[in-house]
Structures are given as C-alpha cells and as structure tokens.
Amino acid sequence: MKINFVEVQNFRKLKSAHIGFDTQTTIFVGANNSGKTSAMLALRYFLSSAKAHEPRLTFRDITIENWTKIDALGRAWEADQSEPQELKELLPALDVWLDVPLTDIHHVVHILPTIDWNGGLLGVRLQYQPKKIEQLKSDFLTARSRATDAAKAKLENGEANKLQHWPESLTDFLTKRLHGLCEIEAYPLDPAAKQNPEFGVAIPQKTE
C-alpha cells in the first residue's frame, strides 16, 4: 500500500493542487513563491500524528483568496440571511489517494466505497472543519454583539472611538478562535467519481 497522489485545497498558496508521488522518491522543484513550502507544510499538518509538539493549523494557513468569502459568510450570519456557502468549503483539506492491494483490505475496510471493491485506488479526505458549526456561529454572533454594544456605548458617552472592538469580522474572530472550534474530520472518497486534474489544478469531488 502506498500513497499514489494527494490533492491540497485552500491551504496557503495552494487553492486546489494535485501532487503526484513517485514510486521511490518525490522532489518538489519550482521557483520561489511557487508553493513548495506550502505543499510540504500541508502534508505535515494533515499526516503527522496528533502530538503536543506537532504544528497546528492557524487562520493564516487558509488561502487568502477565501478571506473575503469568510467575511461575507459572517455578514450573512449577522443579517440572518441565507449563507453564501458553508464555512468548511473555505477551510484547508487534503485528499489522500492510496494504491491498495486486496491483501491489505483489513487496513482500509473503514473507507471502502462499496462491498464490491477488489483492490486498487482508495481515497480519503482529511477536512479541517468546525466541530459544531452552530456553536461556532453562536459564539461569533455573541462576540460581535458585545463589540457592537461597546462601540455604541462609547459613542453615546461622547468618547472618541479610536480603538476597534474585537471581533471586527468573522476572519478577525477565527484568527483567535480557529483552533479551539475546529478539528480534522475524515471522509471516504469514491474512486469512480475521481476526476483528473486540469493543467495541474485538482477537481475535488463533493462530500456530504
């Protein structure tokens, strides 16, 4: 059993990247700022064992392009409007595709797509996501309400409102609270629904 390839989503410079592995040694080659370090860190974050000394994801590990979308989601929560998209769709994920011989089925029985699986490619998504999205939403709205009330109180008292009140936005909230409210969850992927990358850009399949 070996890793055939991985696909990284929403992690730093890697919005949706396909990374193939050689049978023996894989070397990342590219210009400065091309995402080599991002790829290495993504593998380390998602595949290392969960020990106290291991690195953990922070808000700045989320692809910058998604920050405005996260703030739009926060504004929708505050206005009690329909959500533009789910938060977990904007957070980092790693799809790991394994080449597994039938003799190793006992190692992967929990991620088999069907009972007819007869060896070959198997995939699992490691998704960084809220532990309880409703709790995260409630905590954010409570924090925003307190910040808004504090700002109003200063204005009513004629005080200069030079200091900003935390959190100003959902990105501001998650910068401090992401780790405590999120975790990595695993989802099996369907080999039959796998799509080949286009020009090196991965096309991840949808999960529940």
Which characteristics define this entry?
5 helices, 5 strands, 5-stranded antiparallel beta sheet, alpha+beta, 208 residues, 21% strand
What is the helix content?
25-40%
**Largest pleated sheet:** 5 strands, antiparallel
Order of helices and strands: EEHHEHEHHE
The termini sit apart by 26 Å
Number of discrete helical segments: 5
- In total, how many beta strands? 5
Catalogue the unreliable spans. Answer: none
| Shape type | elongated
Strand order of the largest sheet: 2-1-3-4-5
Strand content: 15-25%
Overall average pLDDT:
89
- How large, in whole angstroms, is the Cα Rg? 21 Å
Account of the protein in words:
- There is one protein chain.
- The chain has 208 residues and is an alpha+beta fold.
- 31% of the residues lie in helices and 21% in strands.
- It has five helices and five strands.
- A five-stranded antiparallel sheet has the order 2-1-3-4-5.
Short description:
31% of the residues lie in helices and 21% in strands.
Q: What's the helix and strand layout?
A:
Layout (H helix, E strand, L loop, with lengths): L1 E10 L2 E7 L15 H12 L19 H12 L14 E8 L4 H4 L11 E11 L2 H24 L13 H12 E8 L19
Antiparallel strand pairs: 1-2, 1-3, 3-4, 4-5
